[in-house]
Amino acid sequence: MRPAELTPLFASAQSLTGIGPRLVILMKKALRLPPGVSEPRVIDLLWHLPTGVIDRRAEPAVADATPGTIVTLKVRVLKHKAPPRGNAKAPYKVAVEDDSGRLDLVFFHAERKFIERQLPVGEERYISGRLESYGDNLQMAHPDYIVAPEARGELPLLEPVYPLTAGLSGKVLIKAARQAVARVPELVEWQEPQWVQQRGWPTFGEALRRLHVPEDAADLSPGSKAWQRLAYDELLAGQLALGLVRQRTRAQPGRAVAGDKSIARRIVAALPFALTGSQTTALKEIAEDMAAPHRMLRLLQGDVGSGKTVVALLAMAIAVEAGAQTALMAPTEVLARQHLETIEPLAAASGLRVAVLTGREKGKARTALLERLAAGEIDILLGTHALFQEDVVFKDLAFAVIDEQHRFGVHQRLALQAKGKDGGTNVLVMTATPIPRTLLMTHYGDLDVSRLTEKPAGRKPVVTKALPVDAMEKLIARIKAQLAEGAQVYWVCPLIEGSDTSELAAAEERYAHLVQQFGDCVGLLHGAMSAQAKDATMAAFAANELQVLVATTVIEVGVNVPNANIMVIEHAERFGLAQLHQLRGRVGRGSRESFCMLLYKPPLGETAEARLKMMEETEDGFLIAEKDLELRGGGEVLGARQSGLPEFRVADVPGFEMLLAAARDDARLVLETDPELSGPRGRALRPLLYLFECDEAVRLFRAA
Ligand code: ADP
Ligand code: MG
After folding, report:
1. Measured in angstroms, how far is the CA atom of residue 403 from the centroid of ligand 2?
2. In the predicted model, what is the mean pLDDT of residues 332-341?
3. Any residues with CB less than 8 A from the CB of 559 and at least 6 apart, and which?
């Protein structure tokens, strides 16, 4: 159970004074809510951090104030000057003064009663806003703050500036955030006292207060002590959570699965190629891990085309040799079918019984398949999310492979794992995204990793070129010549943001144009097509009946047509590096010379230019991933949004890597000495996991 002291932080933001249903809807737009949270809560306001401050501390005499700056002035109200009758456009002015000089406060479209109430003649007021000169006079239009001397404390001398959305004012957020901060309870320090002291870090509550109610503009820099403290808290929470999950996974009696190579040998004999060195190494690592008595959770990383499928198949063979069953899950129907195509002939050659289960298998056929599965008559079940369904029961699932992890969540992984005896299924996750070390550590902790670093022999480099979009007709002419020689082309049209043209419409338009140019060898593939139509189109392209495939980004993951040698990407400037690299990986798989043409719309922004240049320069996925990280900077670091991984709330800071390494060591030490988090520090750390909503981990120790 969540500690009761944290309850007020998880109440709806509507529980704060001044926040009602209308504002909550606006806040929902401005705040980043974690997945599954539909209404902003107090805690979400706490993590909605200011991006800067307005400094209202300058409090000069009127005569000394500098026009063009933000000032706070203490003035007396002299007189009100209503606009002349019949001139609605003229502003309402209020003359004010101090002993050194005077100025006009200027209000357009003003409500006179309101101004009279705020600025009664003869009274003193603090006003704060931007001072301007108007001819020889000074004026301030619509002061941000007008407060009576006794209410001076309400005037934020350092006013935090929050990311906003239309209709939501900074003042509302300031008020709400101040209340939210006031709700943060005194919590027992969960960090090592020495570590905190050395760095001069404030407590958790104090750090939040300094960010939302700053006393020093420097507090709001991500390098500030307050911010660093919270960043470390978040990283530590993440590392602890991952550590807990992993510890629990490992502690559960896994299952030692060892084969006799009888099936694997037949598969290898049927392969038309020799395994690469890194395929062999990866297989050895996987086999050792499977043979050990803990549950395996291993990541197989390998660039597009590096040959992960064969590794997966040979690993699956181990489980079958051991007399058990295996599953391979792909994120889409198309990919599941494609795996079937690769695996089927090899399975036939080695006596493996393979079946496919996707959303498309229905009725009697599905029932029959499930019966065979439960009876142990299927060795390898390929499929999509449909594999998670409750009535999918294996006789004995010892090993599961998940392809392209990013499309699946941790929950789904656990759901699949739970289908094995005592939940003891060994899991291999495959991803083509070369995840940089930092990112891996952040999101997966010390997950075991095997990497395919070599490309299979015989691969040709992909010549990559960025072209402005006006070169398209020339490009089309060159492609026409290539098509005559038997080339095959992917033509990708992405979603065009902020235009009325949908992704689909853009692809359809391009399709029509290319049909005009190339004739009926052009096909169209998009997400709104039925599964059958998609498969038929893909199959026609794979069979070289279609030479040009215009597609939305649905072909992004995993598709394999070795003869395809040209990749055209429109609006390449809109893609991230990782995605461009993925797309490019679709070509260069066969014997033809391959090209990747990146069409962009000038002018290019700095980052987009750097991305396209990087693509022209290298095909090394790991290098590209590191660069991607660098270009996006710390927080998108995390490439999180693109990859579907959870994002950080505060940890996007300078010095991120150092903090992360420290957090990892710290978490490891804590869990080694206090695996149940039941000692004094362990108990202090529990609220931290709740504060950062590390659900999976929280659930695990709740179950303990
Ligand atoms: P990915 O890692 O992108 O999933 P695949 O497993 O789809 O890559 O493999 C891409 C292609 O490379 C397939 O046609 C596969 O048969 C082939 N392949 C795999 N391993 C080798 C190898 N060692 N030598 C030559 N070709 C290979
Ligand atoms: Mg693949």
Report:
1. 7
2. 85
3. 334, 335, 338, 538, 586
633: in domain: no
CA distance 391 to 273: 39
For 142-187, the pLDDT digits (tens) are 999 999 999 888 888 888 999 888 888 888 999 999 999 999 999 9
- Phi then psi for 177, rounded to 5 degrees? -65, -40
Helices 308-321 and 277-291 cross at an angle (nearest 10°) of: 30
- Amino acid (one-letter) located at 450: S
Note whether 560 and 426 are within 8 A (CB): no
Question: Do 369 and 452 have their domain in common?
Answer: yes
Do 422 and 483 fall within a single domain?
no
641 pLDDT above the threshold of 50: no
- Whether residue 598 sits in one domain with residue 472: yes
Q: Which residue has the higher pLDDT, 584 or 297?
A: 584
> Closest residue (by CA) to atom 12 of ligand 1?
307
Q: Does 634 reside within a domain?
A: no
Is 47 contained in some domain?
yes
Note whether 309 and 233 are same-domain residues: yes
- Listed in sequence order, the residues at least 6 apart from 282 whose beta carbon sits closer than 8 Å to its beta carbon are 300, 302, 311, 450, 451, 452
Domain assignment present for 470: yes
Phi, psi of 670, rounded to the nearest 5 degrees: -60, -50
Please give the tally of structural domains in the chain: 4
pLDDT tens-digit map of 20-73: 999 999 898 888 887 678 899 999 999 999 988 889 988 999 999 999 999 999
In this structure, which ligand is nearest to the CA of 332? 2
Residue 145 sits in the same domain as residue 74: yes
Q: Which residue has the tokens 């789904």?
A: 412
CATH code assigned at 609:
3.40.50.300
Closest ligand to Cα 273: 1
Q: Ligand 1: which of 301, 308, 310 to mutate, most ligand atoms within 8 Å of CB? A: 310
* pLDDT at residue 637 in the model: 38
User: Closest residue (by CA) to atom 18 of ligand 1?
Assistant: 307
Looking at all shown ligands, the one closest to residue 311's CA atom is 1
Q: What's the burial of 314, exposed, middle or buried (CB within 10 Å: 0-12/13-18/19+)?
A: buried
Relative to the CA of 309, which ligand 1 atom is closest? 6
Question: Confidence class of residue 643 from pLDDT cuts 50, 70 and 90?
Answer: very low
Q: At 86, which CATH number?
A: 2.40.50.140
Average pLDDT over residues 410-433: 72
Co-location of 107 and 136 in the same domain: yes
pLDDT at 698 over 90: no
Ligand 1 centroid distance, CA of 255 (Å): 29
The lowest-confidence range among 82-96, 384-398, 637-651 is: 637-651
Pocket of ligand 1 (CB under 6 A): 273, 275-276, 279, 302, 304-310, 432, 456-457, 558, 560, 562, 589
- The ligand minimizing its distance to the Cα of 582 is 1
Q: How many CB atoms lie within 10 A of CB 390?
A: 7
Percent of the chain residues topping a pLDDT of 70: 89
305: left (phi over 0), alpha (psi -120 to 50) or beta: left
> Same domain, yes or no, for 453 and 495?
no
Atom of ligand 1 lying closest to residue 342 CA: 16
Which atom, in ligand 1's list, is nearest to the CA of 303? Answer: 2
Which ligand 1 atom is at minimum distance from the Cα of 452?
A: 2
Confidence check: pLDDT of 364 > 90? yes
Indicate which atom in ligand 1 lies nearest the CA of residue 274: 23
CA of 309 relative to ligand 1 center, distance in Å: 7
Minimum CA distance residue for ligand 1 atom 20: 307
Name the packing angle between helices 437-444 and 621-632 (round to 10°): 80
**Which domain does 437 fall in, by range?**
222-459+657-704
Q: Which of ligand 1's atoms lies nearest the C-alpha of 276?
A: 23
| Whether residue 45 is found in the same domain as residue 25 | yes
